[in-house]
Amino acid sequence: MTKKRILSGVQPTGSLHIGNWLGAIRNWVELQKEYDTYVCVVDLHAITVPHNAEKLKSDTLSTAALYVACGMDPRECSIFIQSHIPAHSELCWLLNCVTPLNWMERMIQFKEKALKQGDNVSLGLLDYPVLMAADILLYDADLVPVGEDQKQHLELARDIAQQRINSRFSKNNNPILKVPKPLILKEGAKIMSLCDGKNKMSKSDPNENSRIGLLDDPDAIQKKIKKAKTDPHFGLEFSNPERPESDNLLGIYSMVTNQSREKVAEECSEIGWGKFKPLLTDAVITSLQPIQQKYNDLIKDPSELNRILKEGTNNAKTLSGHTLQRVREALGFLETINI
Length: 339
Ligand code: AMP
Ligand code: TRP
Description:
With 339 residues, the chain is mostly helical. The chain is built from 13 helices and 5 strands. The chain has helices at 18-31, 43-46, 53-69, 87-96, 101-105, 108-117, 123-137, 151-169, 218-227, 244-256, 261-268, 273-300, 303-331; strands at residues 5-10, 36-41, 77-81, 143-145, 181-183. Helix 4 runs parallel beside helix 13 (303-331). It is globular, with a radius of gyration of 21 Å. Bound molecules: adenosine monophosphate and tryptophan (TRP).
């Protein structure tokens, strides 16, 4: 039986935090054993808001290195940079021309991000979800592992594939594009800010203390956890709506120590914040240590990373080329002339 395929990606905007790891990359590491796995660094998405050119370069490389450092194994998966495969931009254009504008205007993430940009909203920001649909549809992905916040974008990719391409252009009921499904894993789906248990941990939060970066050193981690918001209650617990910080930090503790929620809830029910914070600090530092070690090795000698990306790009090019060809044919484009 052939394996089902998954595809996912993270934007190289700023450095990745434990939310990206626990909510996304760590799931991929498990999934790659079972699925035919493609993961990319979505650099074209990173320029949908104003960006710094030098920083884009280093963030793209560092995000790819972190994929590998977190355990993405080039023997099990293909890792590549989105902009290295021109088919993403090309399919995006083809999909743009069949996607109704009013589908785009109701995207929640667009509305939120547009609000932050004031007068400076690019057409690319509005088009962001179509580019994401192109990323997914090019690889005939069966499943797309993402966080809860990306569900609406997945719905859009499904609607474009089904209603705007397959039902309009396929002949004899042969679908042109595979209709993907989201794969949203409950655990870690939403890691909250250290400063406010009701807000998502985010790269774009101006307060550095709200997140733990995957590359933060032990000192920084300790300081951030020390400053993390607490509440006046004694003992840590899950699922008390009045105690979002307890739920969040206990959840992180459970994940970084690889212990069940029941086990950590029992361990921490009779200790106060003063005792819990050092426990959490040690656990986070210990869990990030091997990732940071591997990351530093990869950045010091980039030949291994280059080899991994070359192989990933080759695989991605072959697969996406076939899909793009199917769509070009279905939409009526003249065959390219070989010169
Ligand atoms: P982003 O940082 O928005 O580029 O997101 C990259 C991936 O990490 C996506 O799959 C997100 O759903 C996931 N992600 C981002 N922030 C969090 C968070 N605070 N908790 C869990 N997952 C997250
Ligand atoms: N929009 C996604 C996010 O912010 C990133 C992304 C772009 C993506 N293309 C994708 C995720 C394709 C999964 C599949 O998290």
